[in-house]
Amino acid sequence: MIALFIPLGVIGPWQIILIVVIVLLLFGGKKIPELMRGLGSGLKEFKDASKEEPADKKIDDNK
């Protein structure tokens, strides 16, 4: 089997522009802010949850 070299880590400005155009075509201009709002709230919720103390540790401290 021949291994192919695929440069996955190299993303240039043309690739970013292509991705943005594809996203705009798929979702439309009106849907993008709504998607970004959902992404932002999801990230905020994840950060808040990662800062909280685990429930197991809270129970052990009460003993």
TrEMBL record:
Its main location: membrane. GO terms for molecular function: protein transmembrane transporter activity. One of its GO terms (biological process) is protein transport by the Tat complex. Keywords: Cell membrane, Membrane, Protein transport, Translocation, Transmembrane, Transmembrane helix, Transport. GO terms for cellular component: TAT protein transport complex. InterPro entries: TatA/B/E (IPR003369), TatA/E (IPR006312). Pfam families: TatA_B_E (PF02416). The chain crosses the membrane at residues 6-27. It is a single-pass membrane protein. The keyword Membrane applies. It is found in: Cell membrane. Belongs to the TatA/E family. PANTHER family: SEC-INDEPENDENT PROTEIN TRANSLOCASE PROTEIN TATA (PTHR42982). NCBIfam families: tatAE. Forms a complex with TatC. Part of the twin-arginine translocation (Tat) system that transports large folded proteins containing a characteristic twin-arginine motif in their signal peptide across membranes. TatA could form the protein-conducting channel of the Tat system. This is Sec-independent protein translocase protein TatA.
